[in-house]
Amino acid sequence: MSxxxxxxxxxxxxxxxxxxxxxxxxDVTVLERSPEVGEIGAGMSQAPNALxxxxxxxxxxRARAAGTPFFATTNLRDPSGGHLMRxxxxxxxxxxxxxxxxxxxxxxxxxxxxxxxxxxxxxxFAQNAEQAEVQTESExxxxxxxxxxxxxxxxxxxxxxxxxPDPAFWNYTVWRGIADLDLAANEGCMTLGAxxxxxTMPLTRSRVYWALGAQAEAPRVRYPDEREAVRxxxxxxxxxxxxxxDATPVDRVLHHDITxxxxxxLPTFVNGRIALLGDAAHPMSPDLGQGAGMAIEDAVVLAxxxxxxxDAVTALARYDRERRPRAQWVAKAAHKNGHDALMGSxxxxxxxxxxxxxxxxxxxxxxxxxxxxxxxxxxxPALPGR
Length: 386
Description:
Layout: E1 4-8, H1 12-23, E2 27-31, E3 43-46, H2 48-57, H3 60-66, E4 68-70, E5 76-77, E6 83-85, E7 95-99, H4 100-109, E8 116-117, E9 122-127, E10 132-136, E11 140-143, E12 145-148, H5 155-160, E13 168-180, E14 189-192, E15 196-203, E16 207-215, H6 226-233, H7 239-246, E17 254-260, E18 270-271, E19 274-276, H8 291-307, H9 312-343, H10 346-358, H11 361-376
Helix pairs in contact: 1-4, 1-8, 2-3, 2-8, 8-9
GO molecular function: monooxygenase activity
Domain FAD-binding: 5-332
Protein name: FAD-dependent monooxygenase
């Protein structure tokens, strides 16, 4: 079927949804709260499942051109700089690293500017048997359906799922930054500490994304100099970490607390003609690198469901059946990975370190591929081209 849709939010998930819906012939209006369409953030990775979803949307080649292959998940180091595991020379690099703004730009360029309305703060939703409605401070918009891709602190989720608690903080905080440094792809790495980690991801144009994840006793604790707060937490770590901090302007350091719905996953992603997508539906920790990837998958499955039935409500119900089990499984797995990395027992950390030191890179790559098959092996449904 074809019809009209309103997408709330012009982030990665919202733009992916708009691209998918336009690809199947729908008329789409995107409502963005900010006065300009852009992406705030630092770096991110996309795994094979997300790249295949981008292919289904018709933007895979452009996305790959904006990314950089990296090996962080198979280059594991301890705080002194010693290697727990090295990526095999010439081995595969299934992950692509992006500056968040670069991937967002690829998606933004695939949506006509006239389809995006900025400065639109959403205040409410309504629906009947025929249409759904989005109310903003200045206008009301109606369409056959609404896709709410309005992020972790979703207005749609709060208003339409009022019994659902807010995403919960679980003693986990992350600093992120972009360093001006030229680093080869095989120098990307993950440094594992007792209750923290430091990710290093080379990007295009002689930039490097880094992230420090660490335990935190309370949310919303901020520092006058966030870069110095990072430096204090890695004071005795290896030289690459400090070189990256030295090459990062203070104003490029972001600090965010990690929250998710692991304690109370949603019973459905759909309310009549209104569907949640991405972080609005399934906020998750960054520990599997799948937050944006799940949103892109959501967009493809939603478009495929709408392409195959004339009834929007039936299509959204199918979207919920297909997406909720997978997305909530990934969110739960990410939560567990983060918890184990930052809050696991000292004995388990020593056993992991010993196992990694004894395992050859080839065996590690094989074991990792098997463990990740359920996540990375996802195949998108085909979308009809326009």
